[in-house]
Amino acid sequence: MNSKKFTEAMSKLNDKYVDEALSYEKSRISKTSPKRMGILIAAVIAVLALCGFATCELGLFDSWFQKPSADPIRTVQSAIEGQADKEYTICVRVDEIEVSESETERVIKMYSGSDLAKERGWTDEYLAEHFVVVWAKYYAEYDHTKTFMNDGCMEQYFYLAQDVKTGKWQIVDNTSPNTGVSP
Q1: Whole-angstrom Cα distance, residue 96 to residue 50?
Q2: pLDDT tens track for 45-77
């Protein structure tokens, strides 16, 4: 539609509709009292907090309890063994664990110059010196009355970044090698 047609169409509008729109009062919009708004916000926060707690307890979101260490392998081992401290874990056993040079190289290339790296404050130089991938094979058995997590023999890649000030490695992400999913 060109501007001439638009102007012609607007001039044919009945003035009463324009007058009504201009005189429309805000009082017609239902007002929510500050007290009601506060209660609503508190309820939303409570629901979100309970959902977060429930997902952790059910194992739907399984954060790694880890002890950052100067050795990336020890950091990953602490995270896997930390599964034993969770209420729904029956047993955990680490079978193999090693730094994966090939996966480290692949992921560094993938992250270099990426938006995610920039978002996390990772320069290409930082990635080259302070990023590593550790592969682990372990066995875990879970109480399925308390979690929906799969158990059995697992293989995972753990992506670690090193804190430049402390020299300690920390897990920033993980994935299973056979899922084909990249971090």
Answers
A1: 36
A2: 766 665 554 444 444 444 666 778 899 999 999
Mean residue pLDDT across the chain: 80
Instruction: Give the Cα-Cα-Cα angle 50, 56, 59 (nearest 5 degrees).
Output: 135
Place of tokens 């300690």: 168
Q: What is the DSSP string of 27-69?
A: GGSPPPPHHHHHHHHHHHHHHHHHHHHHHHHHTSS-------B
Closest to 147 (Cα-Cα) out of 76, 90, 67: 90
Both structure tokens of 103 = 């996966």
> Are the C-beta atoms of 68 and 75 separated by less than 8 Å?
yes
In one-letter notation, the amino acid at residue 41 is I
Burial class (CB in 10 A: 0-12, 13-18, 19+), 99: middle
